[in-house]
Amino acid sequence: MPPPVKLLLSSMVLFNIGFYLVVPFLAVHLSDDLGFATRSAR
């Protein structure tokens, strides 16, 4: 494979891994802490 193609594929794979690691954390964080955030804002 040429180096630009290898770089593109590796960056896509790393982005997908990071994205799917962050999404469940964000879902739990927002669903658990949203009520706390709105309560503390008042």
From TrEMBL:
Domain of life where this protein originates: Bacteria
Lineage: Bacteria, Bacillati, Actinomycetota, Actinomycetes, Mycobacteriales
Membrane is among the record's keywords: yes
TM segment ranges: 7-30
Keywords, alphabetical: Membrane, Transmembrane, Transmembrane helix
Name of the molecule in the record: MFS transporter
